[in-house]
């Protein structure tokens, strides 16, 4: 590197090829750069290595770039009394490379996109070796005024590389735009489907609410009918129990002690088994009454609709069930 004093005293010369176009043709990308007061350019090494396909920028610099073509951002900016550019990516310890360093990295790159630029560099070297110098053709334009910078025509290889890169970028932009249009169309379809699903859900909810209201009206009507219906004589509101049966029988007739004794014996059997198939002798033995008296008690219970006969068993024993209206 030159000393700072020499850098500061160097006059900025007109560039024959715009550095942005030059770097674009070399790397295939618009790379960030810092242009110093003396016209020298420095580029973030990480940007250049990324565009050239180097996954490890430190290794790429170590393999292909001499130390005189790379520097630290703080050292470069400090040599001109400049402050570090604002932004998180412009760190003080950021590795930067000169334009010559960038060209060296491009020459070491194997990307096909770098081939036209490398071919032009080889042509420049061959021309210098053969003719002793290389100069750009002057552009077919007249200077605006005496002393104005001379315009030069961009080398054909560099111009072709830029055109090819721009065409490639336009194609990528079109593919991106096409993808975005397809994405928007898909999002619209999804939105329409969601709206249709929402409409179905709202319709289903309306049907469910109508069904709930109908069931509530049916339930209200049923409760009204139950409340208005007169009670049926003799019908028990709940499944009969021994106690409820005996209470019902007491209300039906004025029983004597022997009739009540028979009632207490047969009521549990009728409630639990639904019928009674005991011979009269068995009931007489359990009550301490005669068979004849047991028969008279059962006849009295049948007369007052407490029980009813339902035939007999194969052994001749009578079968009785509860009498329910």
TrEMBL record:
Domain Bro-N: 16-132
Recorded superkingdom: Bacteria
Cross-referenced InterPro entries: BRO_N_domain
Name by which UniProt lists this protein: Bro-N domain-containing protein
Species of origin: Streptomyces hirsutus
């Amino acid at each position: 590197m030159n000393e700072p004093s020499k850098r500061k005293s160097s006059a900025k010369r007109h560039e024959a090829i715009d550095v942005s176009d030059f770097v674009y043709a070399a790397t295939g990308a618009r790379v960030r750069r810092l242009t110093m007061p003396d016209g020298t350019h420095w580029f973030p090494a990480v940007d250049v290595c990324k565009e050239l396909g180097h996954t490890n920028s430190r290794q790429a610099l170590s393999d292909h770039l001499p130390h005189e073509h790379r520097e630290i951002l703080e050292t470069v900016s400090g040599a001109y009394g400049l402050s570090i550019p604002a932004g998180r990516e412009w760190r003080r310890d950021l590795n930067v490379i000169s334009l010559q360093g960038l060209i060296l990295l491009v020459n070491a790159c194997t990307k096909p996109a770098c081939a036209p630029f490398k071919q032009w560099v080889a042509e420049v070297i061959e021309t210098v070796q053969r003719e002793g110098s290389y100069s750009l053709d002057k552009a077919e334009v007249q200077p605006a005024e005496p002393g104005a910078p001379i315009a030069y025509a961009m080398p054909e290889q560099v111009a072709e590389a830029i055109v090819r890169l721009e065409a490639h970028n336009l194609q990528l932009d079109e593919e991106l735009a096409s993808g975005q249009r397809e994405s928007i169309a898909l999002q619209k379809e999804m939105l329409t489907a969601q709206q249709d699903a929402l409409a179905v859900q709202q319709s289903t909810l309306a049907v469910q609410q109508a069904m709930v209201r109908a069931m509530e009206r049916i339930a209200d009507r049923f409760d009204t009918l139950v409340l208005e219906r007169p009670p049926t004589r003799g019908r028990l509101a709940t499944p009969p129990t021994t106690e409820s049966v005996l209470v019902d029988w007491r209300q039906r007739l004025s029983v004597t002690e022997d009739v009540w004794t028979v009632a207490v014996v047969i009521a549990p059997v009728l409630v639990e088994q639904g019928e009674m198939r005991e011979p009269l002798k068995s009931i007489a033995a359990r009550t301490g009454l005669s068979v004849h008296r047991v028969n008279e008690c059962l006849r009295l219970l049948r007369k007052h609709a407490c029980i009813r006969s339902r035939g007999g068993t194969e052994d001749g024993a009578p079968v009785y069930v509860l009498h329910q209206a």
